[in-house]
Write a structure and sequence with these properties.
With 290 residues, the chain is mostly helical. The protein contains twelve helices and two strands. The protein is 71% helix and 1% strand. The termini are far apart.
Length: 290
């Protein structure tokens, strides 16, 4: 019986100059990652330090002792539950509503040719480039005239509108990369236009929707300025505005503030971990054809 062996593949040998470049890139990546991760590390470590150690001038990278008292004080703070409820109502509604409207707008812009299409795209890009503070006074006056101050729907409208341009442009990149022939084939096989969208187009849009939704969630969950200006009722404060309650005339409870900030970041981290695979695909897929 004869046996055959595959020829050994020679190992790739890098030239010395390329080895040096790769080592330099690796060191640069590690330094960048350390700089980006250090604020998060300091936040978490500060939430676990005793208060006397937080106020000490002799700060160390690792606390002398760990405590969960800061988390207990944060959870027992007034209006903690209502702040969670407010953030969930505002953020989830803004994300779901924004994704529905952005998907429909992206389909219209990506699939159909109509008068003013390019002008609409240009307006969305320009609106996205405006700083939020430039629109604060007009938005406040308009919502005040409509009775939207101190109402969830007023804040939801602001978050929804602020995420629509970016989400629409991102999802449009996916729409134009999906061949029209797929939709037409589904319709030839008996699907209606809505059925072809639900069975063929929507699954292919999932990475784009994931990427756009994490952007919308981070924008709504972490926003502070509009929530502070538009909501005055303590029982309707969102989590970021609620953090102000740790600062009083007697000083700031830094330990509880850091613990509360750590707790607030957990939902976004969990959501990001769930969809991060699709998000990475979504950020790159729309970059080829535009």
């Amino acid at each position: 019986m004869s046996t055959s062996t595959a020829p050994n593949t020679p190992a790739q040998v890098l030239r010395p100059d390329r080895k040096k470049n790769r080592l330099g890139y690796n060191i640069l990546a590690l330094v960048t990652a350390a700089l980006m991760a250090f604020p998060v590390y300091w936040l978490i470590i500060s939430s676990l330090r005793p208060n006397h150690e937080i106020r000490s001038y002799d700060q160390t990278l690792w606390p002398s002792s760990l405590t969960f008292d800061n988390f207990a004080r944060a959870v027992e703070q007034d209006n903690f539950g209502t702040a969670i409820q407010s953030s969930l109502i505002v953020s989830v509604t803004a994300v779901v509503g924004g994704m529905i409207i952005a998907t429909l707008a992206a389909l219209a812009i990506g699939r159909f040719r109509f008068f003013g299409r390019k002008a609409l795209m240009m307006v969305m890009i320009l609106v996205q480039m405006l700083p939020p503070t430039a629109m604060l006074i007009p938005i406040y006056l308009q919502l005040n005239a409509m009775g939207g101050i101190d109402e969830y729907w007023g804040l939801i409208v602001v978050y929804l509108v602020s995420t629509l341009p970016f989400a629409t442009i991102m999802i449009r990149g996916f729409v134009i990369n999906i061949p029209v022939e797929l939709e037409e084939s589904a319709m030839v096989d008996g699907c209606t236009r809505m059925g072809a969208f639900r069975r063929v187009i929507f699954p292919l849009l999932a990475p784009g929707l994931a990427a756009a939704s994490i952007f919308a969630l981070v924008n709504a969950w972490n926003e502070y300025l509009f929530a502070y200006i538009l909501i005055n009722d303590n029982s309707k404060y969102t989590l970021n505005v609620w953090l102000m309650t740790f600062t009083t005339e007697r000083g700031t409870d830094y330990g509880a503030l850091m613990a509360a900030s750590t707790l607030i970041s957990i939902p976004v981290v969990i959501f990001f971990m769930i969809i991060q695979g699709k998000m990475a695909t979504g950020l790159t897929s729309g970059a080829v054809k535009g």
